[in-house]
Each structure stands twice: as structure tokens, then as C-alpha cells.
Design brief:
Largest sheet: 5 strands, antiparallel
Strand order of the largest sheet: 1-2-3-5-4
Radius of gyration: 21 Å
Helix content: 40-55%
Number of strands: 10
Bound molecules: adenosine-5'-diphosphate, magnesium ion
Shape: globular
CATH topology of the largest domain: Aminoglycoside 3'-phosphotransferase, Chain: A, domain 2
Oligomer: single chain
Length: about 400
């Protein structure tokens, strides 16, 4: 068995692969390997040397999506993921897994095993509290977004990064699933929750103003090469444990609007809040979630303005008041994307467990309508929301 030309590996083949390609394990070590992927696109293997207590992760990209051969996808996405993880690791130390190897033949990223962490979505659905979450995620976003933008980077170096991270196929997935399909049923794959079907047809498909705003946002997503965004920053792309936060899976990364990441974080916290609301979750948990939503906006703004002072290099960006004006545009985009993400996870193909696993029909209907009602406010009145308190109020007033 050699690894000089590409094939999709199974768990047994990954063991000789890591022995051949890395010196992470002793040559004599007895290794075990399991496929642990739960995402839609890729294969994730965990390789362990139980005796030495060492382990690593191999993520391999296929040339179709794992869920369906219908999605043809270039394996270039694992190059993007590996390189972006390395860059994010420099910009936001400690907040992403270490990358041990990127293999452009086998289309693998070999990285740190984070199995002592839990996927945030799973942890939220269990009602667990993570005191550092908002602090860590806002640091991650300010550092990876502001520091890759034109206000900080030398402009030719920034354009070189734009070129490195042209990501047409994965961008197309977002253009379709976030910015098009949830507003019509032309592709007949939205698979609406039957008890909310009429409501969505009337209030989403049937709202001309909403669809008009969505159209504007689609072309902003496609043309505003503002910063290197993660591009898929939902709660399935964040690993947490008590005192640690790690962002994974940046294969959708590209140069886009900063608000795309921040809005994804906030929308996914709002799914968790809606679930907690309809299921009468523990009060301490709901309070922490609300604080985390407000902090995600306010700590972002605070840290953004501090980092601006320290890092901005462009001469015109130093004009009096430009920092606050720029931040306001980012917050407006954030509100828009919060709404778009909430709509697409209910009225589009890719649903979230927070809502789909709600046990009773009545509770799920209510949770979905809370999210969609809030989402419409965010999309229609995006320029109005500048503080965490305002973001949270839109949600709570929809309940
Ligand atoms: P996909 O791109 O297919 O969504 P992800 O990178 O999200 O793949 O990984 C899928 C799953 O594999 C994660 O939800 C997690 O359970 C597991 N996983 C991914 N990366 C790691 C890691 N570094 N350490 C431990 N588990 C991981
Ligand atoms: Mg994923
Ligand atoms: Mg996943
Ligand atoms: Mg992914």
C-alpha cells in the first residue's frame, strides 16, 4: 500500500498512512482507528496509541460530498481548510486545533485531536454552560477578521490572500442554501416542518420586501471581499470544554463580509435560546445564553475598536470617526446574516438539531416561529441593531 496517488481511505488504511506520513507515533506503536465524522462533506478518522495515550485526527476530503454523490466538490477545500487553520492559529493563538500535516496528494489534513472537547451544539442541547465562550469567540472573530482586512493588511498582500482563498464551489453552496432556496420552493428540497408549511409559505415566500432584502444580501455576500471569513461558523464548528474553545472546519473560508461569521454565531445561539424557551430549560442556563448573545455583540464591538487603534495601517482608515462608521456597517451585516441564517436553517435544506430534536410538535412549531419572526426583523431592519441588548430584545419580543 502506498499513498502516492489519491484514493479514499478506510479506517484500516489510515493507520499505515499516519505511520508513513508523520512521526507522531512510535514506529512500533500499536494503533487503532475509527471513522468519527458526522458532517455532511468529509471523512474524519481518529487514530490512537492507547498505551502511550497519544492520538490525532485525519480529515480526508472526497470529490463528492459524504451525504450525496449529487454534490461534486473539488478536494481543494481541504487545502483551504489546512491553510486557514494555520493562519487562524497565528492570528488567534489557542483557538483552533494545531495542524500537523497537509497532504495535497491524499487530500488530508492531519491535526490535533480535540476529543476531550464537545461540539458546542451538542453541549448547548444538553444545557451546559461555558463561561468563556463569548470572550473566546469574539477574540477569534476580531483577530481573524479585522487583521485580514484592507484596513490592516498591506493591500497587495491582502489581494494575494483573496486569490489564495477563492472558493467557488463552497461559496455556491451558501449562495444556494442560505441566499436562494429558503425563499422559494423551486428546488423542492426545503422539506419544511409540515405544521409550519403554510406559515412559511405566507410569511417567508410570500413577503416581497423580505425577498428583496435577501436578494441584496446575496450579492453583498458574493462581492464584498472584506475579510477572510470562516464561512461556516455555526455551533457544529466549535468545540468546547469548561475552559477552552476551539474553532474547527473552515473549509468554506473565503474573502467575504465580516458579518457573515458574527451573524452565524449569534443565530446559532438564538436557536439554542428558542429551544430552551419552549422546553422550559433551567433558568441559570437561559440567563447564561442571553448573556452570551449580548456579549457576542458587545465584546466584539469593544475588542474591534481596541484592535483598530492598535493595528490599522491604512492612512484614510485613520480619519476621525471612520472606525465607528466601519464597525456600524459590520454590525448591520451581522444583523442581516443573523436573520438569513435563522431563516435558512428552518426554511432551507440544512436543519439544526436544536430545533429538529424538540420532542413535541407544538413546541417545535413555536420555536421555529420565534426564530423566523426575529429573523425577519433582523433582515428587514438590519441597520437598527447596534448593541447586544437590542439583538436580544428582537429575539425575546418574538417569543
Ligand atoms: P465536516 O467538514 O464534514 O463537517 P468537521 O470538521 O465538522 O467535518 O468534523 C466532523 C466531526 O468530526 C466533528 O463534528 C467532530 O465530531 C469530529 N472532529 C473533527 N475535527 C476533530 C478534531 N480535531 N478532534 C476531534 N474530533 C474532531
Ligand atoms: Mg462540519
Ligand atoms: Mg460536523
Ligand atoms: Mg465542513
Amino acid at each position: 500500500i502506498n499513498f502516492n496517488s489519491y484514493f479514499l481511505m478506510n479506517a484500516e488504511e489510515v493507520i499505515p498512512y499516519v505511520k508513513a506520513k508523520t512521526d507522531f507515533f512510535d514506529n512500533e506503536a500499536s494503533l487503532s482507528c475509527d471513522e468519527i465524522g458526522d458532517g455532511n462533506l468529509n471523512y474524519v478518522f481518529r487514530v490512537r496509541d492507547e498505551q502511550a495515550g497519544k492520538s490525532l485526527i485525519v480529515k480526508q476530503a472526497g470529490d463528492t460530498a459524504r451525504i450525496s454523490d449529487e454534490f461534486k466538490l473539488s478536494t481543494n477545500r481541504i487545502r483551504i481548510e489546512s491553510n486557514v487553520l494555520r493562519l487562524e492559529g497565528e492570528l488567534a493563538p489557542g483557538l483552533v486545533p494545531d495542524v500537523y500535516l497537509y497532504d495535497d496528494v491524499m487530500n488530508c489534513c492531519v491535526m490535533e485531536d480535540l476529543s476531550d472537547h464537545t461540539i458546542l451544539r451538542t453541549a448547548l442541547n444538553e444545557g451546559r454552560i461555558f463561561p468563556k465562550l463569548a470572550d473566546d469567540l469574539t477574540t477569534f472573530m476580531v483577530n481573524t477578521l479585522l487583521l485580514t482586512s484592507d484596513v490592516v493588511m498591506e493591500h497587495k498582500a491582502k489581494k494575494a490572500l483573496v486569490q489564495d482563498y477563492i472558493n467557488p464551489e463552497l461559496c455556491e453552496i451558501s449562495e444556494d442554501l442560505v441566499y436562494s432556496e429558503p425563499f422559494t420552493d423551486h428546488n423542492s428540497r426545503n422539506d419544511l416542518f409540515p405544521s409550519n408549511k403554510d406559515w412559511i409559505e405566507e410569511n417567508i415566500y410570500g413577503d416581497d420586501q423580505l425577498r428583496f432584502e435577501a436578494a441584496k444580501l446575496k450579492f453583498a455576500f458574493m462581492t464584498n471581499a472584506q475579510a477572510l471569513v470562516h464561512g461556516d461558523l455555526h455551533s457544529g464548528s466549535v468545540f468546547v470544554k469548561e475552559d477552552s474553545t476551539k474553532v474547527i472546519d473552515p473549509e468554506f473560508a473565503f474573502y467575504g463580509p465580516m458579518g457573515y461569521d458574527i451573524g452565524n454565531v449569534i443565530a446559532n445561539l438564538m436557536f439554542a435560546w428558542s429551544r430552551a424557551y419552549v422546553t422550559n430549560a433551567d433558568e441559570k442556563y437561559s440567563e447564561w445564553l442571553e448573556q452570551t448573545i449580548t456579549d457576542s455583540v458587545d465584546l466584539f464591538s469593544e475588542k474591534f475598536l481596541v484592535s483598530w487603534k492598535e493595528n490599522v495601517t491604512d492612512i484614510m482608515a485613520k480619519e476621525q470617526g471612520f472606525d465607528r462608521w466601519y464597525l456600524d456597517t459590520v454590525l448591520q451585516d451581522t444583523a442581516s446574516v443573523t436573520g438569513m441564517e435563522m431563516i435558512r436553517r428552518i426554511a432551507g435544506l440544512a436543519k439544526v438539531k436544536d430545533l429538529t430534536s424538540i420532542a413535541t410538535e407544538e413546541q417545535r412549531v413555536t420555536a421555529e416561529r420565534i426564530c423566523l419572526t426575529a429573523a425577519k426583523q433582523f433582515v428587514l431592519n438590519a441597520a437598527e441593531y447596534k448593541t447586544g441588548k437590542q439583538f436580544l430584545e428582537v429575539l425575546k419580543n418574538s417569543a
